[in-house]
């Protein structure tokens, strides 16, 4: 516990499954961030780290922010993906978190077509304004055109963490499994944070 009454909780518990134990603990204690350790892409696993099936269950069912930690390399920054109002607020939240560990912040918005480019640029501008109003510097921004899933994974390789907002509708968690965020979470080789 620090002077702001913030703390980190590490728990060892007994539960019917790993996923149910994690979900029960998160529901009971309302943590700001749940961190799950994995190695590599998707189903690859090493001893002592959580399997993809468990990760999938926790990420799909948990209503809070989840960081899937894979081979984090410090000081490579957070690549924060923005495209709508919800993701802009998530960007602001993560930028504040990133600034606490002196992690540089970068923004990315992907337009599906040339017609969507203005909206993507607008999302970048709004996110930058919100982040800088919170006192955090945005180092660089990109607005790309194409398949968001592939572009985010490719651009995100060079960063410590790819940050995305969960854009699925509350109560319809099954739609998260068909989202860009879920695809990136499953296929990226580095750490991914889903903010809710």
Backbone structural class? alpha/beta
| Distance N to C terminus | 24 Å
Side by side, the strands of the main sheet go 1-2-7-6-3-4-5
Number of helix segments?
Answer: 6
What's the total count of β strands?
A: 7
Shape: globular
In terms of per-residue confidence, which ranges show pLDDT below 50 for 5 or more consecutive residues?
169-175
Classified in CATH, the superfamily of the domain at 78-163 is HUPs
Helix and strand pattern: HEHEEHEHEHEHE
Strand percentage lies at 15-25%
Q: What is the CATH topology of the domain at 78-163? A: Rossmann fold
Mind telling me the CATH class of the domain at 78-163? Alpha Beta
Largest sheet: 7 strands, mixed
Mean pLDDT across every amino acid position = 84
For the record, the CATH architecture of the domain at 78-163 stands as: 3-Layer(aba) Sandwich
Helix content: 25-40%
Radius of gyration: 17 Å
Give keywords.
6 helices; 7-stranded mixed sheet; Rossmann fold; 196 residues; single chain; globular; alpha/beta
Write structural notes for this entry.
With 196 residues, the chain is an alpha/beta fold. The chain has a domain of 86 residues: HUPs (Rossmann fold), CATH 3.40.50. It has a 7-stranded mixed beta sheet, with helices on both faces. Helix 1 packs parallel to helix 2 and helix 3 packs across helix 4. The two termini are 24 Å apart. The relative contact order is 0.17. About 4% of the residues have low confidence.
Strand and helix map with partners:
Layout: H1 18-29, E1 33-38, H2 52-61, E2 65-70, E3 78-81, H3 85-100, E4 105-111, H4 117-133, E5 138-145, H5 148-156, E6 161-165, H6 180-187, E7 191-195
Parallel strand pairs: 1-2, 3-4, 3-6, 4-5, 6-7
Antiparallel strand pairs: 2-7
Helix pairs in contact: 1-2, 3-4, 5-6
